[in-house]
Amino acid sequence: MAARAMTEPAFFILTALVDAPRHGYGIVGEVVDLSGGRVRLKIGTLYGVLDRLVADGLVELDREEPHQGRLRRYYRLTDSGLDALSTEATRQAANAEAATRRLGAHRAATAGGIG
Amino acid sequence: MSSLLEQRYRTVLRLLPADYRQAWGDDMVASFMQAAYAAAPEDPEGVEISRPSFAEAASIAALALRLRLGGSGAAPRPFSWGEAVRRVALIGLLAQAAGALSGVILLTWALKQLPGAMPLPDATPAFGGNRWLALWSFTVLLWLPAYLSAVHGHHRAARLLAAVAFLPVLVGGVLTMTDAAQGGVTATRVAWLVLPAVPLLALAAFGPDAPRMRTRPWLIALPVGTVVLVAVGLAAQPWPGREQLVLALADWPGLWSAGVTAAAVACLSVGRRDRLPVWPLALALLVPPVLALRVITVLDYVRMGAYTHDTAVAVTIGVIQSVVLVTVGAVLAGTAAHRLRRLPAPTDTAHHHTAATTG
């Protein structure tokens, strides 16, 4: 996984699994909440990313439960998944902080120019 | 009993490789159906007879494409297919870019704009004095940034630039085909549109997992290809007595036929040092569109104009090129299929993660 940049859907899917194992539709709903409604995963996208996360050892099957005549699979984060998410969150926070710092300086300079 | 919606969704899932469907299909259906019912809780009967949305079907199609044309980390078979299609894209873009560069050099030469160059016998450009047509003919250069972007790994930009480069080809083709005075839609015109569309479509194989390629050989190939095409263009100038023979050997389908044949001979004679059958597969994929264009243009030679000795020569050469292409294509396809079969099946290596981690 280290060689590959983490995509936004992968980031949100991992985040959705931090507090509890979830099934496919549960992940979709959680990602909508986490992203403020901005990211609405299609099923094809979700399982494309899940397949890769499982292959990379970041997510694994937690359990299967019957639900309305179907087996529902729940997925959970692995320790590697937690580490990868933590690293990515730190990277994104550092990026955001750098941008915020620059924007603050720019605003201050602009305000000084106007005044 | 499953609902109509579920049946329709399972039909869409058939786009996915069988092993992937086996591993994830039921769970995808469960999640999809749950999402569908949740979207319209007041009308479950309506949900059951509805159809998967275009966006859902498109997401499955995109996933199928990514799985079948694999990138880094994919199983050997889909990886071979992915690499082969990526090479088809690069070869196609290289041909368009080198063809554009050589065409512009020869055109500038014909317009007597190249200092120190001797005048060409065929010094009257086809657009004769019309500046807009002259400008239009330079739009072929748009293939150049598309090719360079693909080589340098800027895949998204390459897709966009290739679409932009294809636009004048498409507009020109459609304008000609909708003009009844020029004969409308013909197989030849469709074939001339299909060949440049091939690399554009093949660029879809450059997904986020596409491995980095060696840029230097592809960068060297551009000036080499351009020089070769300029040399062929100069040789194809209508010196007295060689008109049809040169035309038959140096027309665009003929050059493609020669290029694919030469590459196939090189690829098959080099041996099997590569474990993956990427080159035989890539060249085999190029044979059908090239063959189609060659056959259609040969038929045009037969149909157009008086049947002279020169026409007979052009047709004979075209038929020989077609037969060689069919033979080369069969050998390439056989080699690729044989070597693909020897690779481990996807079920051995991929998509069984869930089974492996169960419990």
TrEMBL record, chain B:
Keyword annotations for this protein, in alphabetical order, are:
Membrane, Transmembrane, Transmembrane helix
Q: Where are the transmembrane segments?
A: 88-111, 131-148, 160-178, 190-206, 218-240, 252-271, 278-299, 311-333
Which parts of the chain are coiled coil? none
Q: What is this protein called?
A: Uncharacterized protein
Q: Does the keyword Ligase apply?
A: no
